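TODO from last week: model Damage-inducible mutagenesis protein.
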Amino acid sequence: MRQAGRERQLAALREQIGGLAPEAAGRPVLSFGVDPIDTHLPGGGLRLGAVHEVLAAGPVDGEGALAALFVAAILARLPGPVLWCLTRRDLFAPGLAAVGLHPDRVLYAETRRETEVLPTMEEGLRHRGLAAVVGEVARLGLTPSRRLQLAAEGSGGLALVIRRWGAAVPEPNAAATRWGVTAAPSPALSVPGLSRARWTVALVRARGAEPRTWLLEAPDAKGRLRLPAELADRPLAAPARRAAAR
């Protein structure tokens, strides 16, 4: 038990040290198109040729679906075929299409066991014809995430890991960013009707950036997130006056 605790501490320390290293210069990124997010992320967006982690915290049927839609919206803004690795057939293709990821772009790799998902992702990342590879797992440890990172760097592809059933367990790994997505209350309308859904999107961890949370409107049919109008149009606050002159 003591040895296991020491290994976890060492892994956490390695992750912290790795987070201090600057991002590779000149690496291409995929922007969100939301200025507060893009300006906060190193390089101005999600780094391509890297692994990114999306947590599906909360009920599997609810938050798991939001995590999948968040990933699909990212992929909708990236041209090319996508390999989606999973162990159960619970993806709702019309839902992915509603946020811009057309079913014709998605290749599904259904594995018998969850332990086969990450190796399948790694194999897919080695093929330069794919724009991105997605995998749904409960755990993402340090060693397998490093293998995914090396494969992503070699091909330049984007690797997105959805942590579903074990997302509440913190694990040090080599992912460049870690995200969380939860539903947020929609505004009340003055007339009956449906308003655009809202999400709370949290950058839980990133190399070279502090954690931060944004309230956003859910993706449109082209995968574009946006700030709610009342937040986007809010004027900057006037600087506070000093209480006393020096």
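Done. The chain has a mean pLDDT of 83.
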